[in-house]
Write a structure and sequence with these properties.
Keywords: Hydrolase
Largest sheet: 6 strands, parallel
Structural class: alpha/beta
Helix content: 25-40%
EC number: 3.5.1.-
Number of strands: 11
Oligomer: single chain
Radius of gyration: 20 Å
Protein name: NAD-dependent deacetylase
Organism: Chryseobacterium vietnamense
Strand order of the largest sheet: 5-4-1-9-10-11
Enzyme class: hydrolase
Length: about 280
């Protein structure tokens, strides 16, 4: 595996065009921080005697019917994210970014803010993030979630003050999390759709880490990178939708190991290419 990675990184390092090192991450990279995957069994939301799957309540349709319930769940996850800490894989990516500088780009499906908290800078959050809110009625402004609003316990309802702060000051409709729900489409403003695809087009290598490719934009990113001649490296513990896309294709590598150890190897190989730069 190391020899194959060395050959790929050396080739990309020497390119004048399409020389970006792009990392696409998903929920798997945050699992060591104790954050359960959204689609897994731990993503099921229990309210009263009702059990809701994410595909049901994680929609704009459901929010319009039950806004307080969805906002309560969002604030429950806010508390979960705040209590979690970035793990070693997050910090390895920070080190790699320090080495590569403008040749590094991180595209993440995660809304948990752990990449930013670890120190990553060149980030494209294609599923939005849990730090921000926007009007559910379409008012243009995207705002930071007011610091006065605290994370919630599983059975803790919104306060009167929460409801005031989560009301749009322009039109009076509910504010909502600035994230992509299951019945919504990717765009540039919230999801950086076209920016992410442009990066994919100019990538020399795309590392896919901790994501199965269950949504359309991550797969489109991999398809675009492959179309324009990038190497694709699938770093996951199990086969997934990306595996189906790249198997038996040239310029691809499938690695079935934990991300932290592979990222350490990638970091050391890059350091050899650029020995004067600092890496811890």
């Amino acid at each position: 595996m190391k020899t194959q990675l060395e050959n790929i990184i050396q080739q990309v390092w020497q390119k004048e065009k399409r020389n970006l090192f792009t990392f696409l991450t998903g929920a798997g990279i945050s699992s060591d921080s104790g954050i359960p995957t959204y689609r897994g069994i731990d993503g099921i939301w229990v309210k009263g005697t009702q059990f809701h799957k994410p595909e049901e309540f994680g929609t704009l349709r459901y929010f319009r019917q039950h806004p307080e319930e969805v906002l309560q769940y969002s604030l429950f996850r806010k508390k979960m994210f705040e209590n979690a800490s970035p793990n070693e894989s997050h910090f390895e990516l920070v080190d790699i970014e320090m080495q590569l500088q403008n040749r590094f780009h991180l595209i993440t499906q995660n809304i948990d803010n752990l990449h930013r908290r670890s120190g990553s800078q060149r980030i494209y959050e294609i599923h939005g993030n849990n730090r921000e809110i926007k009007c559910s009625n379409g008012c243009k402004e995207i705002l930071n979630l007011p610091v006065e609003i605290n994370g919630k316990e599983l059975d803790e309802d919104l306060t009167i003050r929460d409801k005031e702060l989560l009301t749009c000051s322009h039109c009076g409709h509910w504010m909502r999390p600035n994230i992509l729900w299951f019945d919504e489409y990717y765009d540039e403003k919230t999801n950086k759709k076209f920016s992410a695809l442009k990066i994919a087009k100019n990538s020399g290598v795309l590392f896919i880490i901790g994501t199965s490719g269950a949504t359309s934009l991550p797969i489109a990113i991999a398809e675009t990178a492959l179309k324009y001649g990038a190497f694709i490296i699938d770093i996951n513990t199990e086969d997934n939708n990306f595996t189906d896309l790249i198997k038996n294709k040239k310029n691809t590598l499938i690695i079935r190991e934990k991300s932290t150890e592979v990222l350490k190897t990638i970091k050391e190989i890059i350091k050899k290419q650029n020995p004067k730069s600092y890496l811890r």
